[in-house]
Structure formats: structure tokens, C-alpha cells
């Protein structure tokens, strides 16, 4: 199949879950073309970008691509749509630029004769409505978290009535879609997945006088709950000196996090590692003992979907500690693959951290259960096979 992936930006270091899909589809023989609204070349990139020459498959806006539109009727469609937008919303530089980009992408997709458009995140689904209409191709839109949480009943109304299928990550997200007005028959729960070949199972143990290492991986944004992790860890450190919290990530809350570490005098035991490549994250996971991600619902309503790092940590055999938040209870089975606490509850988070430090013998019990859980339910190969069935169903 010729599949057009419609994204906001590519490559994006924080969106490894989309990269995993693309790579697995290529392995299965599909022709993937990536259409990115923003040309963002991060200094740190996942190794698969180069290994699979993905930048060569990526299309950004180029004005000359408009000349490649083969069908004059399709040209007229976009011109007419452009005039309607001006009539309804007035002349907006941002809107005009968006419409021209969509026309550019439509021209390239038309020339390629793609089979299906797969838009990632609800906002890009909205952008893809006109692509579906002009190209007469099926449209699937995948929601991932914030796009479902920060919306009202009007945000995606046209998309719900136009897209062939809407995929979501969990039952929690399905409920969000239903509340926004999406017909239930259009919703498919489709899990993310990880490549288990990249994550060898490692038994966890700590020798006398060695530190028990907690690892947290995530962007420095409110919903990741990193400040709660640090506050709970500061309480743990009062009782146990042989513990360390290592944090991989970067983002807008960096100064707030640095200030908190300084104020609590945790500089020797809380280590900010910055952004890492995917290989670097995996290596750090294998060196750590307990994975920590106390996600929360942000003040603006933003929330997680099903964080890939929780799947990856369990794939290595690491026990995890997280929260009853969004789709996380489906990824982490409380009491079997790790433990969950209520959002923002520092006391409960501290108690579970303390319990795990005091009970190292259960690490490998939780770890084995976690590895098996990911293998059965979040294996990228199996999940992409299910995605192929979705594609074939809407194309026919």
C-alpha cells in the first residue's frame, strides 16, 4: 500500500511511537510517504531516521509542488475552498499559509496516487479533511492524548463526519471521543507498540552499598508530573541515602525543575541527563532499577494517552510506578507489573517508592510480568498487523 502519513512535524524526538509504526510498515513492504507541516531537524534524532532514510521519504512545503497537480478540477476545489475560508474567517496570513501547504501536499499525493491518508493527532485530521475530499482517498485519524483532552463538541465535528475511522489508544480515550460526539461505530481502539527485539530482558538487583536507581523519562511539561516525582523522592532520601533519581528529558519546565532540585538540596541525588537518543534511553533503562512516571492532568486539561516509555521500561523487565491517569491503567497492571497511585498524591507516591526500595526481591516478579504483558498486548509487529487490517478495510 502507498500510505501518506500526515504529521505536524517530522522528525520529532518525543514521537517515537509514530516512528515505530512507520519503520514496521516499511519492514512489511509498504510505501510510506511522510508529509510534515513543519520542517524541524532536531540535533538529537532517533537512529531509525538515518537507517531507513526517512528524511528522503519526507515532504515539506515547496511552492513548485503546486504545479504538479494533474487535475484541473482538483485545482478548482482548492481555489474554491480558499475563497470560502476568506469569506468565513477573513484574510489571515496563518490560514492562507495553511491552505497553500495543504494544496501543495495534495499535489504530491495526487502525483504519487496514494492509497490512504493517515493523519496523526486530531488537529492534523482536521487539516486532512480537504485532502480526502479532493483526492477521493480514505482518511484515518489517530488521536494520542492532548488532542482529545483539549477540545469541545465543535472541534472535530466535521472530522468525525468525514474520516473513515478514528483510532484511539485506550478505553479512556474512547470515552473522550464519545463525549465529543464521535459515532461509536467509527472508533477503533488501536494500541501503540514497541519493538521487543530492541529491549532485552534484564533482571534487576542491587548489590550492598550500591544505589537503587529510579529513572524518569519525559518532556518537561506539566502532565508528566516530574515535580511530583522529585518531591516524593526528596522524602525517600531522608530515610534512604543509597538512592538516586535520574531524569531524561527537556522542555519548558526545565528552570522550574532545576529550581526545585536546588531548593530541596537534591543536586547530588537527582541527575538531569537532558535529551537522549532512543538507544541512549534504552541503555539507561537497563542500568536502572525502577521506572517512575507520575503523570497528571494539567490545569488546561492536557493529559497522556498511553506513554510509550512505560511500555519500553516494562519490555526491559523494569518494575514501574505511575498513576491512575488516562490510559495508563491498561499499560501498567497495578500490583502485577508495577504500582499505580492517584494523581498528585505525593504521600502515596513516596510510600510506593519506599516499598519498592525495601522489597528488591519483587522487582523481577513485577519485571517478568511486565515483559509478558507488553509482549502480548503492545508488540509493534502485532499492532501494525492490526493497523494493516484497518487500512485494508477502509480502502475496500
Description:
It is a single chain. The protein has helices spanning 16-27, 47-51, 72-89, 93-112, 122-135, 146-149, 157-162, 171-179, 226-239, 254-263, 278-287, 308-315, 328-331, 346-358, 363-377, 380-395; strands spanning 2-10, 31-39, 58-59, 116-120, 139-142, 165-168, 187-189, 212-217, 243-248, 270-274, 290-292, 320-323, 338-341. The model has no long low-confidence stretch (mean pLDDT 91). The chain is elongated and about 65 Å long. Helices cover 45% and strands 16% of the residues. The chain has 2 domains: 2-193 and 379-395, Rossmann fold, CATH 3.40.50; 196-377, Glycogen Phosphorylase B (Rossmann fold), CATH 3.40.50.2000. By secondary structure, it is α/β, with parallel strands linked by helices. α10 links the parallel β9 (243-248) and β10. The protein is built from 16 helices and 13 strands.
- Order of strands in the sheet with the most strands? 3-2-1-4-5-6-7
Q: How many domain modules?
A: 2
Tell me about the largest β-sheet: 7 strands, parallel
**CATH class placement of the largest domain:** Alpha Beta
Shape summary? elongated
Report the average pLDDT across residues.
91
- In percent, how much strand structure appears in the residues? 15-25%
Radius of gyration: 22 Å
Q: State the oligomer.
A: single chain
Q: What would you call the structural class?
A: alpha/beta
Named at the architecture level, the CATH assignment of the largest domain is 3-Layer(aba) Sandwich
Under CATH, the homologous superfamily of the largest domain reads Glycogen Phosphorylase B
N- to C-terminal separation?
12 Å
The CATH topology name of the largest domain reads: Rossmann fold
Task: Tell me the helix content.
Answer: 40-55%
Tell me how many strands there are.
13
Element pattern in H and E: EHEHEHHEHEHHEHEEHEHEHEHEHEHHH
Q: Enumerate how many helices there are, as a single number.
A: 16
Extract low-pLDDT stretches. none
